[in-house]
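Posted in: Structural Biology > Protein-Ligand Complexes

Title: Requesting predicted complex, fe (ii) ion in pocket

I'd be grateful if someone could produce the 3D structure tokens for the following input. Sequence and ligand are given below.
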Amino acid sequence: MSFAPGQTVGPFFHLGLPYEGGNLLVPAGHPDGVRLHGRVFDGQGAGVPDALIELWQADPSGQVPRATGSIRRDGYTFTGWGRTQTDGDGHYWFSTLLPGADPGRRPFFAVTVFARGLTDRLFTRAYLPGDEPDPLLDGLEPDRRVTLITTREERGLLFDIHLQGEGETVFLSYPRQAR
Amino acid sequence: MTTQADINREIAELRGSGGPQPRRDYPPYRSSMLRYPTRDLHQVDPEGVELWAPCFGAADIDDHEADLTVQRSGEPLGERIVVTGRVLDGDGRPVRHQLVEIWQANASGRYWHQRDQHPAPLDPNFIGAGRCLTDGDGVYTFQTIKPGAYPWRNHDNAWRPAHIHFSLFGTDFTQRLVTQMYFPGDPLFDLDPIYQSVTDAKAREMLVASYDHSVTAPERSLGYRWDIILSGTHRTPLEES
Ligand SMILES: [Fe+2]
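-- Reply #1 --
Done. Output follows.
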């Protein structure tokens, strides 16, 4: 069965998609909160000021959140999902918790990237730094692997996204999207 | 300046070259040039959260957000329409109680957005954004205004066919879809690099709604039907709860 093609979000997605608190999976200043942030770059290394990033993650125990309330947050429930737009420098940030994973697995954030100029959304993973084996990371050349691993900072994690060119981020497809 | 004839030639050269999904590298759409990934996508088996989609519920959304004609104090200008359809997964199952978001230009082809410089009038009674949850059969319904075509700067005299932007979720993360719905018979289809970035003609047709008189509301609004098929899910039935 064929499925509907994607189309670019275009330049005016701010009208319909971002919403207040979209980037606050936990309130800023939450005792266990971290900032996951970075910049989105184009093929010439310029920040992309009209990108939209969605974040989807397990809770710290590795459970997949099933609670509603990502759009109207109550300030207590961890829904595991957020959305934010890049600013004029191509920078985005989320306030969230560190994801967990099943024992022996490497935790990651599932990330979706949209932008004017991208004809379709892109999927990627932002892994926590660590030593656990991982089927995806272990199958990549080192220079590709590093594009999927966040850098630990004093108060959070850095994850830059390079749409094109040097240091191009590894973007993912899944079996049921095979062309 | 690139002319429409130049773009038409580029579109013609790439016709049929890209399969049923849009080409990521599609030069006729100029702003894609520095933004498309040059490497092949890396295929991976989904795991963990990728096997699930976020949940949205009644607490996230008010019913009136599905009616874009009542967001301001007065009636918006333009042709009132109903847009309805079913969201299905790649195996034909309805996607129930899931979020659908839309945004669009007003009847004059102008967005409620500071970066829209098209000198067509804003309508103080039309913002152009809405959301709803699908019902138990996967059905969504929006009341809105038929959007106008609008010019953009891709090339000289470039115009987008009238469209409504749609954002959809499935039951797993991998089904996420943002796309655009078009209206039947638009004379701008052949000229539009965004619509044509899907180079397969049959796949493009999946983006076009059909007029449906059974959806038309007497004395009120014209009806359009647009069903949306997402890609397949990766969870096995045992994991469904
Ligand atoms: Fe648009």
